[in-house]
């Protein structure tokens, strides 16, 4: 028992950096913000595994593996035409938003 204690402590210290911080995850700012033209019927949507939550004025989500244009098109398909779409706080320009809205339901 005494010999295994240093080994257990070493194993704990090696894995400690890989344990996610709950406080850090809760403070994370969403990567995407999609503002639909019409009020949504649902407060949560899922697009290809990405969870979108309604936050009073927009659906927000964490970064998805798909290209940003594809992500915008997928949320427009679920939420309807968008008046705005932001990626990491940067809004899409009018042309990119129009292309995104071409896929809206």
Describe, in plain words, how this protein is organized in 3D.
Helices cover 36% and strands 24% of the residues. It has four helices and six strands; from the N terminus they run ααββββαββα. Strands 2-3-4-1-5-6 form a six-stranded antiparallel β-sheet, with helices on one face. A hairpin with a 2-residue loop joins strand 5 and strand 6.
Quick one: overall form? Answer: globular
The number of strands is 6
Pick out the low-confidence regions: 19-27
The helix-and-strand class reads alpha+beta
**Which sequence of SSEs, written as H and E, runs from N to C?**
HHEEEEHEEH
Radius of gyration: 20 Å
- Kindly state the percentage of residues in helix: 25-40%
* Residue-averaged pLDDT: 84
Widest β-sheet, arrangement of strands? 2-3-4-1-5-6
Portion in beta strands: 15-25%
Instruction: Note the gap between the termini.
Output: 64 Å
Number of helices: 4
Largest sheet: 6 strands, antiparallel
Oligomeric grouping of the chains: single chain
Q: What is the structure about, briefly put?
A:
The protein is of the alpha+beta class and 105 residues long.
Topology:
Layout: H1 4-15, H2 22-27, E1 32-36, E2 44-47, E3 50-54, E4 59-61, H3 68-79, E5 82-87, E6 90-91, H4 94-101
Antiparallel strand pairs: 1-4, 1-5, 2-3, 3-4, 5-6
Helix pairs in contact: 3-4
